[in-house]
């Protein structure tokens, strides 16, 4: 989601992956194409408390490459007349395609650890990640999925809308109830803006699933 | 014997000057071909031969006048005496020329029954006669119409080896050509290898240009898809010959470079372990890319060769992408508007393979304006080119990012595709359906060009096709079109297909068609809760049909979609949940509950879908949840779930935990 710019400096880093010999993560029903989530992003800073309502929809997921993508819609954005929609792409931390270390987007290893450790579900993994990058971790059986989401472009407004999508989110998804929490990271924005989302059932009494099949 | 200048001049004159003079001369040639005077006959033979060499129009013209039988007679009538040798040479040469790259010519030569006579020329004492015979036969063996060569017959094998052993390069080349074009089965490959053909062929690798090329072609045929043959070949002199073939990819002759590349492609596709060296793979790709620029047949074959090499192999596609393959191909397509259909087909298929798995490649399509090239190709007159362009579009549109950005959702792209749905060629129809089924996935943007062009009606028509693949593809496209669709879009479909019609689709004899119909239904009943009502039309016909299909013990893929239909319906109102229960527990007794079977399936997705149905049925917020839970428990379903708490699939395990948690809230013990 686009945010205001705040001044700060961090060094650039070369992106790297550490494939190892892992298989892809198993599918999770609630993290699939068509799934919708709704909640808020806390965009407070020193001046005031503010939260935007946010809707997220997953459009595609490719576990083999640790990739997923979707849209994010921010409502009640003060400087916009309409909801602002962005398209984002995600990296799934599976130990095969991506690790807990970002290696790009001006995020250092320290930044990574600072953010991941804000998720309670990360604490059992923290020791191993700090010691060897988490090479030995069996993420296939862990009921949380860690990701990074990076917005790529605005879908319905121009880039001159006064908002920026320069940063990215550290995201934690709970496989059991489909809830999502995240922290926005952008060296030039307020730190630790929290994203909290829950699954949406569109007025239904239970869960409903759509699907498509690409040829 | 010198030819006359008039005949030489007429061979280069335009056919527009088909005056009485010209046809008189042709008729005259025929009477001279039948002459009993060998000098006259010889001159006539030379005249025809000189006119038709490299001239397809002349070949056709002489063919229609019956030149081939006349020349065949001349060949048959000539005895083996020395003075007839010139006639033998010229008639063999003329027949070979008719057969060269001209299928009608090959047909005529074979129909004239002269094939055995040509074979006998190979044992003539005169070297020139042998040469002419061998060359002529090679032309015939380039064609698919060449007589079947039975390698399993001992005398045929002996004859073949006598050719391969010959010092005459045309004769040994003929032997290799026969293998290249007639060896088709793994049995034939084995028999040839056991007879020692590989050892003979590799000698030709060090021979003349013509022998090398014939050898490379025949090696590719003998080794194709046969790991044992490849192992035998690589084992010869500890890999020396594999190295030789690899070296030949740097030869100065383009055709040699191409044929050695194609040989390596065959070896790689059969036994990739011989290519651990990244450099060899890169070199092979780079050479094929360079050959794409060759104006002749080598360029045509290189394009198809490249697509064969990288097909299904992400690592090679990546190497090709990094070697700038896309840009190279696009430059050729953009600058040369007169490309042969075979080359166009090969180039589009190569592009298709490049973007089959790599998102970077698909994204570069957009920046390099490849879409426009593809749209133009959709209007080409040749079916193979159109089909290749559709396949390319299909693979490029696997990019969710580009679909989401609406890159394909424009009139410019959609209109020619929709028009191709009526193409007379079934391969084009199949290909365009594949492309459309991806491209209609517009993530519910308000405007769909496809719908505006009447696409829904066309797909509904195709869902009733005689061809099950067409039915399946059409339903898949409809399914994707209805993904996250709003009520307005769903209504466009439902208004044209009544419950009866849809029930027929679900009960299609082909399981893949049933699967897509159910997947489409799943999407129709997702979204706004009112869309569930569709399954209740005509007294619940559709829901009954779903239940009936599930009770039949279907294949897993179909069952998964069926269970998600029930899951989605069960996420509705009390009435909807009760209707699902009626399908799970129909009045008729004696039928084993299919849910128990599904829960024990090897397919984790089926187990998962079944558990989701249960989750929705006993969702605590609904009034009848407790009673439904009681029924599920007494049917053995809840106990079955208790046995599955350690399911191998994490997702299934988590869903079961949810059910058992709900169960506990109803007072059940965990």
TrEMBL record, chain A:
Start-end of Polar residues biased regions: 7-27
Record-linked Pfam families: Vac_ImportDeg (PF09783)
Region (Disordered): 1-44
Family membership: Belongs to the GID4/VID24 family.
PANTHER family: GID COMPLEX SUBUNIT 4 HOMOLOG (PTHR14534:SF3), VACUOLAR IMPORT AND DEGRADATION PROTEIN 24 (PTHR14534)
Designated name of the protein: Glucose-induced degradation protein 4 homolog
Gene: LOC104782199
TrEMBL record, chain B:
Entry keyword annotation includes Nucleus: yes
Major place of residence: cytoplasm
UniProt cross-references to Gene3D superfamilies, sorted A to Z: Leucine-rich Repeat Variant
Keywords: Cytoplasm, Nucleus, Repeat
Low complexity: compositionally biased ranges: 1-19
Keyword Nucleus: yes
Classification via SMART domains: ARM (SM00185)
Compartments where found: Cytoplasm; Nucleus
Region (Disordered): 1-29
PANTHER family noted in UniProt: ARMADILLO REPEAT-CONTAINING PROTEIN 8
Protein name in the entry: Armadillo repeat-containing protein 8 isoform X1
Organism: Camelina sativa
Highest classification ranks of the organism: Eukaryota, Viridiplantae, Streptophyta, Embryophyta, Tracheophyta
């Amino acid at each position: 989601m686009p945010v205001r710019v705040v001044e700060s400096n961090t060094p650039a880093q070369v992106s790297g992956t550490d494939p190892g010999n892992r298989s892809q993560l198993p599918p999770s029903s609630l993290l699939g194409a068509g799934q919708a989530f709704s909640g808020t992003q806390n965009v407070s800073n020193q001046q005031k408390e503010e939260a935007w309502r946010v809707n997220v929809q997953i459009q595609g997921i490719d576990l083999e490459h640790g990739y997923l993508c979707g849209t994010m819609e921010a409502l009640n954005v003060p400087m916009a007349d309409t909801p602002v929609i962005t398209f984002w792409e995600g990296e799934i931390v599976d130990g095969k395609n991506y690790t807990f270390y970002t290696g790009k987007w001006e995020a250092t290893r320290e930044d990574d650890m600072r953010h991941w450790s804000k998720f309670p579900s990360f604490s059992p993994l923290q020791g191993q990640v700090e010691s060897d990058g988490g090479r030995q971790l069996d993420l296939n059986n862990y009921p949380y999925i860690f990701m990074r989401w990076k917005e790529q472009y605005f879908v319905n407004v121009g880039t001159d809308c006064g908002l920026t999508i320069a940063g990215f989110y550290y995201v934690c998804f709970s496989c059991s109830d489909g809830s999502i929490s995240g922290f926005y990271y952008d060296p030039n924005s307020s730190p630790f803006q929290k994203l909290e989302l829950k699954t949406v059932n569109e007025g239904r009494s239970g869960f409903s699933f759509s699907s498509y099949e690409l040829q | 014997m010198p030819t006359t200048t008039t005949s030489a001049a007429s061979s280069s004159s335009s056919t527009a000057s088909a005056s009485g003079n010209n046809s008189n001369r042709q008729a005259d040639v025929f009477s001279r071909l039948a002459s009993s005077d060998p000098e006259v006959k010889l001159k006539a033979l030379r005249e025809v031969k000189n006119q038709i060499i490299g001239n397809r129009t002349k070949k056709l013209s002489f063919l229609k006048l019956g030149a081939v039988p006349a020349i065949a007679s001349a060949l048959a009538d000539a005895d083996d005496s020395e003075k007839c040798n010139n006639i033998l040479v010229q008639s063999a040469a003329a027949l070979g020329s008719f057969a060269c790259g001209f299928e009608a010519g090959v047909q005529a030569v074979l129909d004239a029954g002269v094939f055995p006579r040509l074979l006998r020329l190979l044992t003539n004492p005169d070297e020139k006669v042998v040469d002419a015979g061998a060359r002529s036969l090679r032309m015939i063996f380039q064609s698919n119409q060449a007589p079947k060569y039975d390698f399993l017959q001992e005398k045929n094998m002996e004859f073949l080896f006598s050719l391969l052993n010959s010092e005459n390069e045309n004769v040994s080349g003929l032997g290799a050509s026969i293998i290249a074009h007639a060896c088709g089965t793994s049995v034939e490959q084995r028999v040839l290898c056991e007879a020692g053909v590989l050892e003979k062929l590799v000698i030709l690798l060090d021979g003349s240009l013509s022998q090398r090329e014939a050898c490379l072609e025949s090696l590719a045929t003998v080794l194709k898809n046969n790991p044992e043959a490849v192992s035998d070949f690589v084992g010869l002199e500890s890999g020396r010959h594999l190295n030789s073939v690899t070296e030949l990819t740097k030869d100065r002759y383009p055709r040699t470079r191409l044929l050695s590349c194609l040989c390596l492609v065959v070896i790689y596709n059969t036994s990739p372990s011989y290519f651990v060296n990244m450099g060899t793979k890169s070199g092979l790709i780079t050479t094929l890319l360079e050959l794409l620029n060759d104006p002749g047949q080598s360029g045509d074959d290189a394009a198809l060769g490249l697509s064969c090499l990288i097909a299904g192999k992400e690592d090679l596609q990546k190497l090709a992408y990094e070697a700038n393959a896309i840009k190279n191909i696009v430059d050729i397509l953009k600058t040369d508007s007169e490309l042969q259909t075979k080359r166009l087909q090969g180039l589009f298929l190569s592009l298709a393979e490049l973007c089959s798995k790599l998102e970077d490649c698909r994204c570069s399509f957009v920046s390099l304006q490849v879409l426009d090239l593809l749209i133009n190709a959709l209007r080409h007159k040749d079916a193979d080119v159109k089909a290749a362009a559709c396949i390319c579009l299909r693979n490029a549109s696997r990019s969710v990012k580009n679909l989401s950005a609406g890159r394909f959702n424009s009139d410019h792209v959609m209109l020619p595709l929709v028009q191709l749905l009526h193409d007379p060629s079934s391969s084009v129809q199949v290909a365009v359906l594949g492309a459309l089924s991806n491209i209609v996935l517009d993530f519910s943007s308000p405007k769909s060009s496809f719908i505006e062009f009447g696409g829904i009606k066309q797909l509904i028509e195709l869902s009733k096709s005689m061809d099950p693949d067409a039915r399946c593809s059409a339903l898949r496209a409809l399914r994707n079109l209805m993904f996250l669709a709003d009520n307005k879009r769903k209504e466009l479909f439902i208004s044209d297909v009544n419950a009866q019609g849809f029930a027929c689709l679900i009960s299609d004899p082909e399981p893949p068609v049933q699967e897509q119909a159910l997947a489409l239904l799943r999407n129709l009943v997702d979204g706004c809760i009112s869309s569930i009502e569709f399954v209740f039309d005509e007294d619940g016909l559709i829901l009954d049909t779903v239940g009936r299909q599930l009770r039949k013990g279907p294949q897993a893929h179909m069952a998964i979609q069926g269970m998600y239909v029930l899951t989605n319906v069960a996420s509705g109102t009390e009435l909807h949940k009760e209707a699902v229960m009626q399908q799970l527990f129909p009045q008729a007794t004696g039928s084993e509950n299919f849910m128990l079977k599904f829960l024990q399936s090897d397919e984790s997705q089926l187990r998962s879908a079944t558990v989701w149905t249960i989750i929705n049925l006993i969702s605590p917020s609904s009034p009848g949840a407790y009673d439904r839970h009681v029924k599920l428990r007494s049917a053995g379903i809840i106990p079955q779930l208790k046995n599955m708490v350690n399911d191998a699939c994490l997702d299934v395990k988590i869903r079961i935990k949810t059910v058992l948690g709900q169960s506990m809230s109803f007072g059940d013990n965990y």
